[in-house]
């Protein structure tokens, strides 16, 4: 029995205004071909299928077309769980129809933990028990109490995650024992999750949102019951095993979500349960759209662009000019260098000009230059809020932002 683990597709995501549907389409085509080539029987998708809770028509078309293609392959089952970017009600809406295609969707936590325990079969023979745990929202696993401290909130959240996995896995173990007693053998247990496990590696500016208030986002691997033979995680974009446990893994995002991930080899994870212990290996994903970051002096940047152009590169480029001289017409010089080639510059950071503008007139900044945390910090500074009072205010503000991000616009 072969399982393929992937996550964090973020269908519909753009990069500095550039649509990326061709990349997503190429990845999904590659994934279908990989399923055929590797003879995959079960596909696990661990959250963040879409980049927003209201995906556009093109993103939806890619999603449903992919599911339709996979249904015609050797893949017997697809398990899809929601992530923090996904709308639970949007994912769940067609679940009854998709189940007829052996596609099992869990958009959000349900009252009955047994709803998240799936028994996947090959004909009449059970082959895998899946604890299909989606992203667990704060309100799903924690009851707020008046006057509780940030540390108390964190402890409740950690305990809520732990308790949920214990509840779901207990049902899975009971099912496993019953099947064993019926002579079906010891059926392996796989689980999914969409969270930030302690020790997980991230990159600055990769767009990975904080999931909870405070430091809870880093959940220790000890919260996961030992009965799990393989844990398919989503949320972090770097492929990695967690805490030295080879069977607890992030597959990472399939395409680079930003220029900071440009040099990263993207992967999916193949799990083969040929014996008692899973054989785990990573499969590299081809790069469908090269991204290149250039930083340095004007001469160095222009030289690098000329080299890329001579190589026939079709990369999208991010440029950061760090030279000592002010170059106000930087974009014109760069575009002139690219003329006649397939390179495209998506972003230019002219540090010297930016520093000069900020020194002269910080009031010229617009909200587009700031994120939601920057705005709040400016407010705290403007009202001269003492440092000792900022931690609780930051926590409350972050809680409001998270609540807004988790609001399911498709729910009725």
By oligomeric state, this entry counts as single chain
Distance from first to last alpha carbon: 40 Å
**Proportion in helices:** 25-40%
Count all strands and give the number.
19
Which sheet architecture does the biggest sheet show? Answer: 6 strands, mixed
Sheet-strand content, in percent, reads 15-25%
Query: Uncertain spans, ≥5 residues at pLDDT below 50?
Result: 211-216, 354-364
Strand order, main sheet: write it out. Answer: 6-5-4-1-15-16
Overall SS class:
alpha/beta
Roughly how many Å is the radius of gyration?
Answer: 24 Å
Helical run tally: 11
Q: Mean of the pLDDT scores?
A: 86
User: H/E element string?
Assistant: EEEHEHEHHEEEHHEEEEEEEEEHEHEHHH
Shape: globular
